[in-house]
Specification:
single chain; 139 residues; mainly alpha; two-stranded antiparallel sheet; 4 strands
């Protein structure tokens, strides 16, 4: 797949903003991920849900395929336990903001979501969380 949606995972992660995907086009990023024994990734839609982070086919991707939805927020059972946040590598992986990302996508639509999600990732990973105010950029 080469369209924009191919880099938008059913779970709300924007694969195009992921370091594993960016490593396909950036040698420095590729070398950095190789140092921690990760491989590059074309995005879950391009590889039938096979994720290098978990080294198996993603259960959330399979679920979306089985239910015939493009994004989890289109499912009648949204949000489900598959989207629950995790403390494991929360500072490095965008998995903890899946429900926020999907809710935003559902509320503002795909076009507006694609314009805003990169900024949200920047705030989340480069800023700090302020309870009640969300992510804040460092001063």
């Amino acid at each position: 797949m080469t369209d924009k949606k191919s880099l938008e995972a059913p779970c709300g992660i924007h694969c195009g903003l992921c370091r594993l995907n960016q490593a396909l086009h950036n040698e420095a990023v590729r070398q950095a991920i190789e140092k921690v024994n990760l491989s590059t990734c074309e995005g879950c839609r391009a590889v039938d849900g096979h994720c290098p982070v978990i080294a198996e086919q993603c259960a959330t991707w399979v679920c979306a395929q089985n239910k015939g939805v493009d994004f989890c927020c289109e499912c009648a059972e949204f949000p489900c336990d598959k989207l629950a946040p995790s403390s494991d590598r929360a500072d490095k992986l965008p998995h903890n903001i899946k429900v926020y990302s999907l809710t935003l996508r559902k509320a503002v639509g795909a076009h507006e979501w694609s314009k805003r999600i990169g900024r949200i990732y920047d705030l989340y990973y480069k800023g700090k969380m302020a309870i009640g105010r969300g992510p804040q950029l460092p001063q």
